[in-house]
């Protein structure tokens, strides 16, 4: 079984295109390791290979899967692995057969949908099967990735995603970086050592329903064969870390496009998501945990993405806290710049990232390994049945990889504001600059905007001035007309409202527009709940559907806006809940109850995390039992998250 998994890479990774196989035969380490590996297998046939000596090269590690006969050359190994390719095909067929009932149910007509209820009531089917049936009953369909797929569009998209391959010629910093980093000696011990138990656990945690990568290996295969594959891949992973090289078969990706909006007007309206090797994703998870331990304390506290105990709500609430606290003072206003980057993940320069990682105390061997991971990557775009031509890229981090989000956060970690009256919030590539203006002095704000534009130029990030907008929040009695903001000789458009991290924020800091959109969306989904009720499904299933499909819409970022919502808006929201109650026939939690419980839960997590940027807001009184109440002058500040959270924590 283990050889069957490895056989997939044998068809893609030959001695000519594998960086590890190219360099391994030329080193003395390979010549010395081969006899040791062979002797281990001969002394303990049939046992799990446990090696305490130096790591063996990839071809010898792969050959350890078959103890009776050890391949003596990469070509012989490839021949053996290709012969075992049928095994993985049979295993894949097995898993397809195991889920055949679910697929048949999804494609069945209405008559079989009624049979689905009987099957669910009589047999405790898996949750995934239940939701497959619910989608079939409601006739709910996920929008397709592309409605007009063709070969030319696939090739155009692949070229479009590789358009940042040439670095920014205006960046002196980039021009001084070597295209290929200097190799470190092979004898340098890796900073990270991976044991068999770690590999076994990460294989077992793979989700079976996830799509496989270009190599065709499914997560179910790794999960089932974790015990057999862990000894082999632990050697392969450690050898990769020792050589600071990622095999080319691990770096291949298939790009799946997802529309950013309903109506497509250009290539930029498709979001690229990379399907990569499941084995490589497991490898990345182990490296990710190591990187988080090293870089966690050094990350920008106002970067809220991909960090423990951070959320979208935290980013919005923190920004609103800066704004509302400043507006409580007289003679103040706020300018908010919502920055848009063009294909931010695709613009990362690996050598620049390597320099930044070194400054964050990441070991040089890991830096070299990450550079290898991001360079010489082969990718193609799949649109339905059409596949584009393969393209090689040395720029960017694939969206969909485990390491990419953290690498982008580390890449932008030094993008911060130096002025205390200008706050720079980051949530992955969503960057927001908040200028707290006092007495009309905007010099600090405009200087920070210029510094941001310079930083983007130096780091190959393309600032999209057409989509970058500004919103002014000014509650002064007779505010004067304010001069527009310009970036790189382009005037930034001023807007009255903006959808920030999924929440619509208006310049009057009211939530009418946001509540209108979520009420409309929730009422549309009530149709699906009515369809389910027609099939006499049990109340428990209807409640689960309501919680996942309707309540999730009503409660999105509820800690941000519910406290400041008007009574009429709350009545509109609660009317949707009452309609769902009548359809289901059972009471449901009110939005006020959900808001209160979520605020308490969020506040408790913040008070237990001293590294959280809002931790100082919750100041304990000398008694140690209550928190100091927030000093607020206006109702809009009093009803915001932090004052309400402190009030609830004290009550």
TrEMBL record:
Region (Disordered): 17-52
Protein name, UniProt field: Reverse transcriptase domain-containing protein
Record PANTHER family: ENDO_EXONUCLEASE_PHOSPHATASE DOMAIN-CONTAINING PROTEIN, REVERSE TRANSCRIPTASE DOMAIN-CONTAINING PROTEIN
Tree of life domain: Eukaryota
Entry GO MF terms: 2-oxoglutarate-dependent dioxygenase activity; methyltransferase activity
Annotated source species: Cyprinus carpio
Pfam families referenced in this protein's UniProt entry, alphabetically: ALKBH8_N (PF09004), RVT_1 (PF00078)
Annotated InterPro entries: AlkB_hom8_N, DNA/RNA_pol_sf, RT_dom
SUPFAM superfamilies linked to this entry: DNA/RNA polymerases
Domain Reverse transcriptase residue range list: 239-505
């Amino acid at each position: 079984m283990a050889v069957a998994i490895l056989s997939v890479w044998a068809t893609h990774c030959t001695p000519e295109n594998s960086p590890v196989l190219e360099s391994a035969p030329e080193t003395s380490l390979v010549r010395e390791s081969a006899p040791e590996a062979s002797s281990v297998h001969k002394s303990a046939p049939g046992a799990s290979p446990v090696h305490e000596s130096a790591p063996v090269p990839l071809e010898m590690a792969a050959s350890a899967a078959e103890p009776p006969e050890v391949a003596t050359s990469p070509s012989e190994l490839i021949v053996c692995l290709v012969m075992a390719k049928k095994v993985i095909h049979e295993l894949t067929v097995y898993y397809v057969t195991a889920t055949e009932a679910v697929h048949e149910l999804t494609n069945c007509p209405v008559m079989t949908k009624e049979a689905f209820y009987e099957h669910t009531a009589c047999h405790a089917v898996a949750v995934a099967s239940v939701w497959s049936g619910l989608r079939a009953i409601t006739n709910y369909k996920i929008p397709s990735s592309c409605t007009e797929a063709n070969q030319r569009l696939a090739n155009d998209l692949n070229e479009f995603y590789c358009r940042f391959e040439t670095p920014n010629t205006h960046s002196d910093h980039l021009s001084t970086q070597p295209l290929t980093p200097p190799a470190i000696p092979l004898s340098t011990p890796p900073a990270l050592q991976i044991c068999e138990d770690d590999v076994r656990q990460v294989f077992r945690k793979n989700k079976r329903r996830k799509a496989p990568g270009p190599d065709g290996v499914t997560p179910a295969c790794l999960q089932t064969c974790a015990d057999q594959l862990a000894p082999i891949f632990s050697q392969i992973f450690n050898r990769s870390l020792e050589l600071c090289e990622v095999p080319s078969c691990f770096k291949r990706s298939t790009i799946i496009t997802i529309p950013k909006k309903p109506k497509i007007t250009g290539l930029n309206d498709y979001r690229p998501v990379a399907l990569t090797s499941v084995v490589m994703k497991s490898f990345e998870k182990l490296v990710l945990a190591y990187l988080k331990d090293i870089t966690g304390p050094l990350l920008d506290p106002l970067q809220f993405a991909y960090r423990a105990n951070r959320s979208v709500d935290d980013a919005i609430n923190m920004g609103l806290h800066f704004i509302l606290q400043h507006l409580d003072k007289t003679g103040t206003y706020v300018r908010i710049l919502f920055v848009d980057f063009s294909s931010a993940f695709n613009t990362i320069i690996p050598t620049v990232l390597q320099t930044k990682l070194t400054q964050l105390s990441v070991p040089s061997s890991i830096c070299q390994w990450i550079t290898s991971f991001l360079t010489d990557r082969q990718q193609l775009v799949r649109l339905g049945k059409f596949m584009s031509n393969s393209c090689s890229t040395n720029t960017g981090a694939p969206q969909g990889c485990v390491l990419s989000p953290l690498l982008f956060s580390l890449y932008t970690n030094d993008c911060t504001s130096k002025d205390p009256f200008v706050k720079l919030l980051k949530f992955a590539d969503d960057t927001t600059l908040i200028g707290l203006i006092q007495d009309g002095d905007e010099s600090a704000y405009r200087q920070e905007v210029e510094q941001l534009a310079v930083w983007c130029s130096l780091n190959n990030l393309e600032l999209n001035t057409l989509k970058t907008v500004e919103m002014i929040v000014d509650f002064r009695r007779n505010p004067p007309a304010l001069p527009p903001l310009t970036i790189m000789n382009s005037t930034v458009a001023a807007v009255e409202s903006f959808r920030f991290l999924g929440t619509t924020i208006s310049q009057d800091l009211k939530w009418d527009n946001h509540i209108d959109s979520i009420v409309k969306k929730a009422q549309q989904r009530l149709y699906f709940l009515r369809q389910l009720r027609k099939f006499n499904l049990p109340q428990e299933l209807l409640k689960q559907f309501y919680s996942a499909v309707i309540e999730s819409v009503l409660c999105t970022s509820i800690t941000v806006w519910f406290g400041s919502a008007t009574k009429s808006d709350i009545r509109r929201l609660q009317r949707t809940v009452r309609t769902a109650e009548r359809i289901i026939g059972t009471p449901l939690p009110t939005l006020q109850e959900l808001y209160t419980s979520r605020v308490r839960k969020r506040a408790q997590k913040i008070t237990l995390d001293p590294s959280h940027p809002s931790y100082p807001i919750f100041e304990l009184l000398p008694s140690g039992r209550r928190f100091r109440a927030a000093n607020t002058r206006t109702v809009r500040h009093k009803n915001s998250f932090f004052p309400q959270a402190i009030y609830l924590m004290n009550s």
